[in-house]
Design a protein that fits this description.
Length: about 260
């Protein structure tokens, strides 16, 4: 579970509701089922019209990306690639076949198996880059669904407010009821703006960030695979791949070198 996503949502809701109640507001006045139906039902309907079913079917996967923290350890991946490069220089790339078959990362596994099979380096690069592009497109499509929701929700809120005001203006016999009725009408706008800026758009951004992390990891693996296939010096491969790391990860790799944990 990605605590930053969960805590961010809870903090945002707590801030909005807490600030409202601080001024004497009652939480019950924020719960208007009809406004919820108009805003959320209208938003979901508009999103459904905007995207094909194949993309909408990936919404659970998109939520999983946003709310799940995947542990990525690029320093370990670099050390693993450097170790395999050392084995390939000593024993040949065929010595990596068993290791490649058993690897848990499908992208790295595919790349290593192409190297073991003697695939042309340029073709290896093209195939792996196509896989990267496919993953990037999938993630972008997932984020666009939530971006669309963030765009439609405020508009649906305004529509809900206008519908509420139409109802109010059609029943002016009791002036004392106008204030509460107008307040209820404006709740729809609150739902639309709040859901867009606290839920839909932040989740879309989180999915983009996660997608960028995935692509960066695959780029690191791609460069390592091609360098291994070219028979480059393992230490030169490490220096090349270290450029993908943040400062903290670079420090970890350097410490491994000092401790003799990396070849």
């Amino acid at each position: 579970m990605d605590l930053t996503t969960v805590l961010g949502l809870l903090l945002g809701l707590a801030g909005l509701i807490g600030g409202y109640m601080w001024d004497g507001g009652h939480i019950n006045s924020l719960i208007i089922p009809s406004a919820m139906l108009i805003v959320f039902g209208g938003t979901f309907g508009a999103v459904a019209v905007s995207f094909p079913g194949s993309i909408l079917a990936k919404i659970p996967r998109a939520l999983s990306i946003a709310f799940t923290q995947v542990k990525r350890d690029p320093a370990t991946t670099i050390n693993e690639l450097v170790d395999m490069a050392s084995v390939a220089r000593r024993e040949g790339v065929l010595a990596l076949e068993q290791r490649a078959q058993e690897h848990e990362n499908p992208f790295l596994k595919d790349g290593l198996l192409m190297v073991v099979d003697g695939t042309d380096p340029e073709l290896t690069r093209q195939i792996l880059e196509l896989e990267m592009d496919a993953i990037e497109n999938q993630v972008n499509n997932m984020s666009k669904v939530f971006e669309a929701g963030g765009g439609y929700a405020p508009t649906m809120g305004i529509i809900g407010t206008v519908m509420g005001l139409i109802h109010v203006l059609g029943n002016l016999e009791d002036p004392s009821s106008l204030g509460p009725a107008i307040a209820v009408a404006f709740t729809a706008t609150l739902y639309g703006v709040m859901s867009a800026n606290l839920v839909y758009l932040p989740i879309a951004n989180k999915i983009k960030v996660r997608g960028k992390e995935m692509v960066n990891e695959m780029e690191l693996m791609l460069e390592g695979i091609l360098a291994l296939q070219a028979g480059e010096n393992p230490q030169l491969i490490k220096k090349k791949l270290n450029s993908f790391l943040h400062d903290k990860s670079k420090k970890t790799v350097e410490e491994d070198d000092v401790n003799g944990e990396a070849p």
